[in-house]
Amino acid sequence: MDMETSPRHNVPIKSAEIIAEEVSSKQDVETASATLEENNVEDIKPVETRDEDVYPKPIVETDDIIDEMESIDIHGEDKTVSLESETQQDKMLSPSNDDYDDDSESSHDSKDDADEDETMDAKEKPKPDSRDSNPSTSAWTEKAAAIKNFVRVKSEVAVHTVMRHLSGKINDDSAVHDARENETQWAESPKAKGKSSIWNPLSYLKMMQNDDTIDKVEATNVEAELEPVVMKGRIILYTRLGCKECRECRLYLHGKRLRYVEINIDIYPSRKQDLEKIGGSSSSSDVPKVLFNEKLVGSIKELKELDESGELDEKIRHLIDEASPREAPLPPFSGEDDASSKGPVDELALLVRKMKPCIVRDRYYKMRRFKNCFSGSDAVNFLSSDQCLERDEAIEVARKLASQLFFQHVLEDNMFEDGDHLYRFLDDDPIVSSQCHNIPRGIIEIKPRPIVEIASRLRLLYRAILEAYTSPDGKHVDYRSIHGSEEFARFLRIIQELHRVQQLVDMPREEKLAFFINLYNMMAIHAILVWGHPAGPLERTKMFGEFKYVIGGYTYSLSAIQNGIIRANQRQPYHLTKPFNEKDKRSMVALPYVEPLSHFALVCGTRSGPPLRCFSPGEIDKELMEATRDFLRGGGLVVDLSLKVAYISKIFNWYAVDFGNGEKKVLKHASTYLEPQLSEALLDVLVDTQFRVVYQTYDWGLNN
């Protein structure tokens, strides 16, 4: 076959092999020409041009791309770039001309390369008819590919560096070092065989997250060390309220990572008999008592003796392997010794249960639509027919139902009247049903108990929760254990009785103050367990304002309890209005004056807040003073007399009006709860000089 000729110059078009020979060093030009003449050009057979040669298929298929993206190492150690990309980058970094003349190419090729090209297989040589046979096109193609790869590598390094800067992982100096290191890795690492280099920005997110791998592994190891020992058996711990040895025994078992079931004989009085049977005598009812399955181990003293002798480890291994036999004491079951499920039946509740599905529907009243309500006449008609009463008698029964807080007027205009006035049952109120977390499902058949009795039961249960699931100082709470405890389940049943309680207005000041402080603290724990710890100011506002209980027929949020009742209906910080207006009947429940020391008793689950305590009505004032003193001496007020600076809790800034509404008055008020010597020195200095007050940063983190 003759060599093709150019139609314009009538000169043969040289093949790629001839061009390769010509671009070698000048000393080998004659040798290359002689070699070309010796070759028989006519022996070259024509090669058919296929579509695959002109339009080659993509090197990487979709499945290959997915496999490669999944196989990218987040450490960046296995990132690969083709050898071709390295050559193209070298060309970009080295000086070169646009024209591929003999002088430019002679610096890159050698005689040995030419000899190797002669020995190459014919399939590896460029085809004469292919598009790459044009040297100018080939050169620009290579340059374009080199620019593309160069920009890609630089972009990847830049993205990695920026993302690490945003995450705060490195400073400027280390960023330059990491950028150079990553660039070197990309330039030097070889191309993975059969794979194409694909830029995956998501891999750099993984790389950034992987920087904390060591810290996460260490944190995981710490958590694993703190996880309780998994046992087939069961440990029973008998305790009672106010027992120091019981608290010591809890801490000892917790330190050994032993999960146990606590039975407080003050909460479960029926278990006293079981404890006496286990001990064999009446004196054996003393607590604490620890049982491993059915065997009595003893108190904290016996536990320590077993630990010193090495027998405790053997008993623990037995608990791990052996399940509890039938004769072992059982954990308390739901509702055991719970007074909420016991009591006289309320006949009015049974009547309401029958009445409700017959008269409730959506109605229009005063140009408005009210859902799930009934008219006064419909209620009277039902009572007359169902109870066989005269109309006047039926009206009296309906008024009695309203006085027992089963229902109320939709606009609170009256208690009950026969006619077109609309009324709504308490659990059908939209606010009560959507925001109140103590409304019972259905109607409680037990007669409501006095508020004083309910407050006493709540106080007893609150003490049991604090002793079992908080740290000794009350600053840390085990929310996870509270959530699954029988004590918390009983608490949920008790608070359901609050929706129809009476005599809230008539409660003495000490009873009311202790009741609402304890309820506030347990309500905050309940909110955290249901909604989680608020992450920001919007979530905190929602928790304080929208997590509610219905008490005595009216809804109370955390903010309403603190600012409306305990602070005598004072404005909340950063608010313009009071919690209760003049027509709000809840204002009648509010305390007569502000209780400033209550700020050191109310706990909303934050680290900067005071520790949890249980307050009793008989010693409420003494306990509030102790709580204030412990809070201020524990870091709530730090005084530096030499610098004349006082670092004080942010609480005094938010509620300054409760402490005198002035920094000097606030310091005088707070100084009375410090150590006597420091208090006298501070008061003496305040007389002559002005102290600078610095408010501490409030830590909203969870006190878990």
Task: Describe this entry's structure for a reader.
InterPro entries: DEP_dom, DUF547, Glutaredoxin, Thioredoxin-like_sf, WH-like_DNA-bd_sf, WH_DNA-bd_sf. This is DEP domain-containing protein. Residues 346-427 form the DEP domain. The structure is a single chain. This protein has a four-stranded mixed beta sheet. The chain has a four-stranded antiparallel beta sheet with strand order 5-6-8-7. A three-stranded mixed beta sheet has the order 11-12-13. The N and C termini lie far apart (89 Å). The protein contains 29 helices and 13 strands. It is globular. The chain is an alpha+beta fold and 704 residues long. The longest helix is centred in the N-terminal third of the chain and has 32 residues, at 135-166. A hairpin with a 2-residue loop joins strand 9 (548-551) and strand 10. Residues 1-20, 23-111, 113-133 and 168-208 have low confidence and may be disordered.
